[in-house]
Amino acid sequence: MLPPASAQRRKNQYRPVIEQVGTFDPLPNEHNEKLTSLNYERIRHWIGNGAHGFFPIHPTSYMNAWRNRRAIKENQEKSINVDAKTEDKQ
Predict the structure, then answer these.
(1) Residues 47, 13: Cα–Cα separation, whole Å
(2) Burial classification of residue 43, based on how many CB atoms lie within 10 Å of its CB (0-12 exposed, 13-18 middle, 19 or more buried)
(3) What are phi and psi of 17, to 5 degrees?
(4) Alpha carbon of residue 56 to chain centroid
(5) Among the residues of 1-90, which ranges form H helices?
(6) Residue 79: CB partners within 8 Å, gap ≥ 6?
(7) Secondary structure letter of residue 32 according to DSSP
(8) What is the pLDDT of residues 8-64, one digit of tens each?
(9) Which residues, by range, are in coiled-coil regions (predicted)?
(10) With contact defined as beta carbons under 8 Å apart, do 7 and 13 qualify?
(11) Radius of gyration (Cα) for the chain, nearest Å?
(12) What is the pTM of this model?
């Protein structure tokens, strides 16, 4: 079992890690759950400093996220416009 950790790039994977950013318990508990905990503050810190996972994020993932954010924003604007029109009629 390898815990989620931050290590230097292109180094032997069995060398000491820079910082452990989470834990993983592979043994199921009484609810048959395998537990994982992550320290999101430290993960954001490392991503902000250029860290990434085993593979870099695919450009299509960025495009999908951008489109989803734009669609959410447009839906919110439409709902605001509908609410404003409803108030004008009353």
Answers:
(1) 19
(2) middle
(3) -80, 160
(4) 13
(5) 40-48, 59-89
(6) none
(7) S
(8) 566 566 777 788 889 999 999 999 999 999 999 998 888 888 877 767 778 898 999
(9) none
(10) yes
(11) 21
(12) 0.44
